[in-house]
Amino acid sequence: MKDRFGREINYIRISVTDRCNLRCRYCMPAEGIQTAGRDQVLDFDEIVRVASLCGELGMTSVRLTGGEPLVRKDIALLVKRLKELPSVQRLTMTTNGLLFEKTAGSLSEAGLDGVNISLDTLDRDKYTQMTGTDGLFDVLKAAGKAWELGMKVKINTVMIDGFNDGEAADMALMAADRNIDVRFIEMMPLGRGKLYTGPSCEKIMEILIRRLGTPERCFGDSGEDSGPARYFRFPGMKGRIGFISAVSRSFCKECNKMRLTASGRLKPCLQYGDGEDLRDLLRAGAGDMEIKELIKKAVLAKPRCHRFGEADVDGAEKDLMAQIGG
Ligand code: SAM
Ligand code: SF4
Description:
binds iron/sulfur cluster, twelve-stranded mixed beta sheet, single chain, alpha/beta
């Protein structure tokens, strides 16, 4: 399905919970958040139904996120059910990795194709300061395990000025010997991200060129530039380095996604607080056609672009990234 600006919307990012076992400082306050009640969160039947209807409209790539998706009980069962949908061509997950190692086998058997692991530093103390938990080694083990199981592994890194920005080259070198992607995501001024600044992707690229040499441009998994990341390969490295220039070079022209929050709001854009409430419709016994109409309405409401650079944007999202699903 195309939106009003001719963008092919083929990707849905589904948040399965707003709970999280970490407190990354740019995402969650140390005291946590008021999480949604159990009955407010979509159950597996509801998630699978929405994914199936979105799939019929062309959203064939599905990513599970949160909060932390692995804190949701029986998540491998949901993976299996989604993977069985004929429309789902690719099913992936974004996770902080802490609980990954012990569920990896069942996730792989259930058909998870790939995992994006969020990791912002390789320094144990900094990891603990950044997230509130001494979990660096568990995350590194998670990345190794996912790779061993043959999943596509991407490491997602957000840099904060003066905190972990000196580690860009060390993070990139995680892709030296293994065919994994290390992706730098610019700090977005959303939720607690407004309290921090980070280097632009251009600045990170300059640092990497100085340390690792001149890279060649290469393409994403589907052989072309799909989605917002731009990929490069540095000399002698097996994996790719990706840049998601959310702020400095707005990625909106390439935006191919919709977001479903844990409570069932279908969100057209990360920045705005609008969207269509699918949960009420699902629970009122609506038929497939009616739900699809609401999904289409949300897709057609996708704005041309975010306005991250501007203060006081009308209708800006009030929920935190952990609630939206990142
Ligand atoms: N808990 C999972 C995780 O951390 O991978 C999934 C949810 S988390 C909200 C998804 C991604 O959003 C993480 O990679 C995190 O670094 C990123 N994120 C959160 N707040 C951000 C911000 N203000 N700017 C850029 N990325 C952000
Ligand atoms: Fe960190 Fe993800 Fe949890 Fe946010 S949702 S606090 S980024 S682990």
